[in-house]
Write a structure and sequence with these properties.
There is one protein chain. Helices cover 77% and strands 0% of the residues. With 416 residues, the protein is mainly α. Helix 5 (144-171) runs antiparallel to helix 6 (176-197) and helix 10 packs antiparallel against helix 14 (391-403). The longest helix is centred in the N-terminal third of the chain and has 33 residues, at 16-48. The radius of gyration is 20 Å and the shape is globular. The two termini are 36 Å apart. Mean pLDDT is 84; it is low at 1-7.
Length: 416
């Protein structure tokens, strides 16, 4: 069986079983990687390096996200060229979750910072292999009129997975291996169920494109002049993600150092804050994808996300109390859900090359995750303004950048 070309008819509508199992698979992999990204790794760094936690966590988080930025399009490129008899996408789902599990063991059992870093790099690399393979299935097998629904469900599971994952963190506050292991075990089960029923695309060896150093470099680049709408979409996604990245990356330390939550109460406070953030995100992301499909419009949810992210971040840092922090976090959750519910279908509508779906979705993932890498490297300089932990400056700068994602949307022409 060869790869479909752009001239072939759109794939048939997918049924309920596909939708349910795809939703479970995305829920699992998001829980496996987002829970440590937002809570567990910060707690682990605080345990192994309590004195230098802010700087150390910036390094761990930043380097880990850089690995994700490289891994996602790279594995996407490999997936687009895989000629396995098991299909193009399925092998990377399986390889990815096994590697993620190995990394989780490192993070959960290490007693020093080096072990935490090694484990987190493994998790970021292999989780993105799974993400690349799983999300490419959207372009392979889901018609355009259902992509908003599936994209909304993928966004919904991203938020919901953190709520469930953080529940396990506070349920086992003194056992980091269980905190890391339970989400990964759930991901492995759900991905296996999806992979077993998947009628995966297969690529003939004779039709496999070459993979050279030039092709590898192309995993991270496209010509903006040939695909201007895709370029402007990526810029808007990047800018909005900056504010969301600051909130999710520094939430634990914001609660501890700005709102002075006691160490014994920190895990529970982080759980409640993430519950607010992700519960709102979960509800809104599904509605965002559904309404976007019904309206046949992708820009309004993005504009709404840019505005609400800036407002929510301002409320968090200017309110000065846990109550106002919850209000601000809820607004950021609405912004996150509005964006995450539609970004995949928005991306599909602007993709420059339907024969390299996984590669191009990897570039989308760069725009989505690169802020989470750049923020930890830039944050220490901003936090140091005034001689202390200046979370007001850090959060407000990120809010302004998120707001700039709105006017960029006007440059996109072929998508409403």
């Amino acid at each position: 069986m060869s790869t479909p070309s752009t001239a072939e008819a759109a794939p048939p509508r997918v049924g309920a079983r596909f939708i349910v199992l795809f939703t479970l698979a995305t829920f699992g992999i998001w829980m496996a990687i987002n829970t440590p990204a937002m809570v567990t790794v910060a707690l682990r760094v605080g345990e192994v390096d309590p004195e230098g936690k802010t700087t150390s966590y910036s390094v761990v988080s930043g380097v880990g996200t850089l690995v994700a930025v490289i891994a996602n399009p790279l594995f996407g490129r490999l997936s687009d060229r895989t000629t396995s008899r098991f299909g193009m996408r399925r092998p990377w789902m399986v390889i990815g979750i096994l590697g993620t599990a190995a990394g989780a063991v490192f993070v959960g059992t290490s007693t020093g910072l080096a072990g935490v870093i090694i484990g987190w790099l493994l998790m970021q690399a292999f989780a993105n292999a799974t993400i690349a393979g799983t999300f490419a299935v959207l372009g392979d097998q889901v018609p355009e009129e259902q992509q908003g629904l599936l994209g909304g469900l993928a966004g919904m599971t991203s938020g919901g997975s953190v709520v469930v994952g953080t529940f396990f963190v506070q349920l086992f506050p003194t056992d980091p291996l269980l905190q890391m292991g339970i989400p990964v075990a759930a991901a492995a089960i759900f991905l296996l169920l999806f992979a077993l029923q998947l009628k995966d695309r297969r690529l003939d060896v004779a039709q496999r494109p070459p993979f050279s150093a030039k092709e590898f470099a192309g995993s991270f680049w496209f010509n903006p002049r040939k695909a201007p709408d895709f370029a402007w979409f990526l810029l808007s996604l990047f800018l909005i993600s900056v504010g969301i990245g600051v909130v999710s990356t520094y939430l634990v330390y914001f609660l501890q150092d700005r709102l002075h939550i006691a160490t014994d109460d920190l895990a529970n406070a982080a759980f409640l804050a993430n519950l607010v953030l992700m519960a709102v995100n979960t509800a809104v992301s599904f509605l965002s994808g559904y309404i976007s499909d019904r309206m046949d419009r992708r820009k309004p949810p993005f504009a709404f996300a840019a505005l609400l992210a800036a407002v929510g971040i301002s409320v968090m840092v200017l309110g000065g109390s846990m109550l106002w922090a919850y209000v601000g976090i809820a607004l950021v959750g609405v912004a996150y859900g509005s964006m995450s519910g539609v970004y995949l279908s928005f991306a599909m509508a602007t993709l420059p090359d339907s024969d390299n779906i996984a590669r191009d979705l990897g570039i989308v993932n760069i725009a989505l995750t690169l802020p989470f890498s750049l923020v930890p490297f830039a944050a220490p300089a901003i936090l140091a303004i005034g001689g202390g932990d200046n979370y007001t400056a850090l959060f407000l700068v990120s809010g302004v950048l998120s707001l700039l994602g709105w006017p960029v949307l006007s440059r996109i022409r072929k998508v409403r």
